Amino acid sequence: MSSASQAVARCVNVSRIYEEDAVPVTALTNVDFELAQGEFVGLAGPSGSGKSTLLNLIGGLDRASQGEIAVDGVALQTLNETQLADLRLHKIGFVFQSYNLVPVLSAQENVEFILQLQGVHPTARRERALDALASLGIGTLAHRRPGELSSGQQQRVAIARSIVTNPVLLLADEPSANLDSATTEELLKLLRRLNDERGLSILTATHDPLVMGYAKRRVQLRDGAIVEDAAVSGA
Amino acid sequence: MSVETVASLGASRPRAAGAAPAGASKFGLAAAVAWRNLWRNRRRTWLAVGGVAFATALVQFSMSMQVGGYAAQIEAATDFFVGHVQIQRSDYVEQARFEQTINGVTSLVRSLEVRPDIRSVAPRVEAFALASVDERSFGVQVLGMDAARERRTVGFLKRINAGRMATGPDEVVLGSALARNLGAGLGDEVVVLGAGKEGGVAALAASVSGILNSGIAELDRSLMLAPINAVQGAFGLGDEAHTLVVRSADPLAGAELVGALNTELPQGAKARNWDAVLPDLRQGIELDRLGSVFLYGIIIVVVTFSVVNTFIMTVFERTREFGLLRAIGMRPGAIIGMVQLEAFCIWLLGVGVALALMVPIIVWLSSYGLYLGEEISQIETNMFLPDRIHPRLSWAVSLTAPAIMLGGVQLAALAPALRIRRLQPVAALRAQE
Fold first, then answer.
1. How far is the C-alpha of A214 from the C-alpha of A228, rounded, in Å?
2. I need a labelling partner for B260 at 20 to 30 A (CA). Which of A197, B55, B126, B139 fits?
3. Over the stretch A168-200, which tens digit does the pLDDT of each residue have?
4. Contacts of A97 in chain B (CB under 8 A)
5. pLDDT digits (tens, 9 = 90+) for B119-145
6. pTM (2 decimals)?
7. How many domains does chain A have?
8. How many Cβ atoms are within 10 Å of B95's Cβ, its own excluded?
9. Do B171 and B207 meet the contact criterion of CB atoms below 8 Å apart?
10. Would A94 be classed as within a structural domain?
11. Alpha-carbon span B30 to B321, nearest angstrom
C-alpha cells in the first residue's frame, strides 16, 4: 500500500447503516481503506458484501453513518450537497453498470455535457470530447445516440465521459455486468491502459473474475468488512 | 487522519482550463436535453401543448371580444349623447345650478376645435322650465344646442324622427313622450316659462319643428331642444354655456386629453372623461372584467393542472436520468432549471399554436364583426350595446394570456421538479427507466 501523502481516497473506521422498514441494516462496518495515486484496485465480494456501498461513499453519492472519508485530501463529511456535487464533477469519474448515458444526447454530447457543467468553452469541450472518444476507439460514433450503440460502445462512451474531465479517481461499479466476455476484455484493457499510461487511479467493484484479473490490487469484502487486501504480483 | 476542506467547492466552482465566461455556455446542451426530451413522448407533449394552446386561445379570443365589446359600448354611449369628454364648471358638476356657466364660450370652443386631439366641440345650455300647450303644462329640460356642431360631435340629433331640428329662435324640438303628454304635434305652438339667470322670467314661444324619439323614456318625456342662441337669449345668458361636449380624435386616449385640458382650461372649468360622466357604464365594464378574470383564472388553473400531471410523469420516468446528472455533479438547481426549460418549450409551442390560430381569426373578425343576434340588436339603444361586436387585437390581448400561462406552466413544472432537490443519487440510479 502506498504512503498517506499519495492517497487519492482514504476511509477511516467507516460504517454505513441503512434503515429498511425501520430495521437497521449494516452495509459496512468499521472499514479502513486507502487508495493510492495510480492504483488499480478491484473490490470483490458476494452480493450484499458492501462493494457498491463503499464505492458510493467514496464517490460522495452517499454519506457514511460513522467514520471519515477523504478524496484527494478533501474530507467528505465536511461538505454540503452542493460541495459534494462539485467534488464529483471535478475530481471523480463514474462508470456504472448500466452505462447511464443521457438517451437524447449523442455520444459526443454525452461526453461534452460534463464539460459544460464545468463551464468549459464550447469549442474546447467539443475538441476534448472528440479526443476522449477517439482515444477509446469510438471517434467515428460520436454523433450516434446511445440507442444506436452496442453495449460495449455505450460503456466506452461512459468511460470517455468519466475521464474527459481528468479526474483524480475513476470509480467503476460492475462495469462489465452487461457485457459479453470479449467486450469485457476490451474494456478492461482500456481501463488498464488508462491506469498505466495516465496514472489514473481506478477503484472497481465487481463479481467478475476477469475484471479482478486486470486489477493490480484486490480487496475482498464480506458482510460489510474487508477480509482480504493484497497486491497482485506481476500485475 | 489528516484531511482538509476545499473552500472553493460549492460556493464558486473552480474554472477548468479554457473555461467559458460564467453563463456563456451553460445552457447549450441543457437546452438540447430539454427540447429533445419533449419528443420522447410526443403524445403527452402535444396534449400539454394543446392544453396551453386551448387556454391561451380561449382567453385571447374572449379578451379580444371583451375589449371590442367595451369599445363598442363606450363608443355607442358616448356617440349617442355624452361625447368622449365633457367640460363644465367644476361647481356645476357638483350642484348643477343654472348660473354656474362657462363664459366666453365662442372663443373657447374655437380654441379647442383647432387642437389635433379634438375632432369637434358642441356647447350646450341646460335649463329647466315649464312648457305649456293650451291647457297642458309639463316640466321640461331645455337643451340649447348648436345643431351643426352637435351633429359633428354626437349622433343625438339623428333621433329626431319627425320634422327637423329647430333652426331659429322660434322653433323647438320635443321629446316624443313630452309631445304626446302636451298633446303637441309638428307646427303647434309651445310656451316655455322659466327663471332667468338674474332671477327674471325666462319666456319663449316657439312652434314644434321636430319630435325626438331617443329610445330612452326619461329623455323622451322631458327633453326640449332649441338653438343655443335662443335659449341663451331667453334665459338671460350671454356668451355662456353649461357644458361643452367634446369628441376626441382618439376615443381611447380620453384620459390623456382630459389631463391636458385640465391644465389649459380657464379657471373653474373642468374636463371629465366619459367614465366620470357615465359612472354606471364604467362600473358595469369593471364588473364584467372582474367576472371574466375569475373565469380566465379557472381555465388557466385547469390547464395548469394538466401540465402538472405531465411533469409529474416526466420527473417520475426520468428519476434515473436525474440521478445520473446528480451523480456526475450537476447541481439540483441546474436540473430543475432544465425541467423548467422543458416547461418553457411547452409554453412556447402552446402559445405559438394559439397565436397562429387566433390572430388571423381576431383580425378577420375585427373587420367583419360578430353578429350578436336580433334580440341584442333590439335592446341596443337602452343598454348601449352594439348588435355586432368587433373583437380588438392589442398588446394587452396578445400578451396577457401568454404571460399568465407562462407563470402557470412554470409553477406546474416546478411543483414536481422540486422533488429533484430531495433526490438521493444512489436511490435514483437504482430506479427503473
1. 17
2. B126
3. 999 999 888 777 888 888 888 888 988 998 889
4. none
5. 999 999 999 999 999 889 999 999 999
6. 0.76
7. 1
8. 10
9. yes
10. yes
11. 13
Instruction: Report ipTM for this prediction.
Output: 0.90
**pLDDT of res. B27:** 62
Q: Which amino acid is at B97?
A: R
CA–CA dist B231, B127 (Å, integer): 8
Distances (CA, A) of A39 to A12, A61, A136, A169: 18, 21, 20, 9
In a domain, A18, yes or no: no
> Which residue, among B146, B252, B150, B164, has the nearest Cα to B212 in the 3D structure?
B164
Mutate to test the interface with A, among B12, B27, B328, B422 (most CBs of A within 10 A): B328
Please give the full DSSP string across A53-96, using - where no structure is assigned.
HHHHHHTTSS--SEEEEEETTEEGGG--HHHHHHHHHHHEEEE-
Question: What CA–CA distances, in Å, run from B127 to B23, B93, B99, B236?
Answer: 73, 15, 10, 11
Q: B329–A90: do the CB atoms touch at under 8 Å?
A: yes
Task: Give CA–CA dist A145/A126, Å, rounded.
Answer: 16
Q: Specify if A115 maps to a domain.
A: yes
Q: Write out the three cell numbers for B129.
A: 322650465
Q: Say whether pLDDT at A103 is over 60.
A: yes
Residue B341 is placed in which grid cell? Answer: 426549460
Contacts of A89 in chain B (CB under 8 A): 13, 328-330
What average pLDDT does the segment A137-154 reach? 92
Report the alpha-carbon distance of residue B109 to residue B121 in Å, rounded.
6
- Per-residue pLDDT tens digits for B89-116: 999 988 888 889 999 999 999 999 999 9
Residues forming beta bridges with residue A226, ordered by sequence position? A221
Residue of A nearest to B7 (CA): A83
Of A56, A74, A82, the CB nearest to B6: A74
Give the other-Cβ count within 10 Å of B287's Cβ. 10
Q: Do B13 and A103 touch (CB under 8 A)?
A: no
Instruction: Give per-residue pLDDT as tens, A195-235.
Output: 998 889 999 998 888 888 889 999 999 999 999 998 887 65
Question: Which of chain B's residues have a Cβ under 8 Å away from the Cβ of A7?
Answer: none
Tell me if A119 and B20 make a contact (CB, 8 A cut-off).
yes
State whether A165 and B40 contact (CB < 8 Å). Answer: no
Domain, as residue range, for A129? 38-63+88-231
The dihedral built from the CA positions of residue B231, B237, B240 and B241, taken in this order, carries a sign that is negative
Decide if B25 and A125 are in contact by the 8 Å CB cutoff: yes
Residue A139's CATH number: 3.40.50.300
Whether residue B23 has pLDDT greater than 50: no
Task: Give the closest-approach CA distance of A50 to chain B in angstroms.
Answer: 14
- Verify whether the Cβ–Cβ distance A74 to B425 is below 8 Å: no
State what percent of residues in chain B have pLDDT above 90: 45
C-alpha cell at B356: 397562429
**pLDDT tens track for B211-262:** 999 888 889 999 999 999 999 999 989 999 999 999 998 877 788 899 999 9
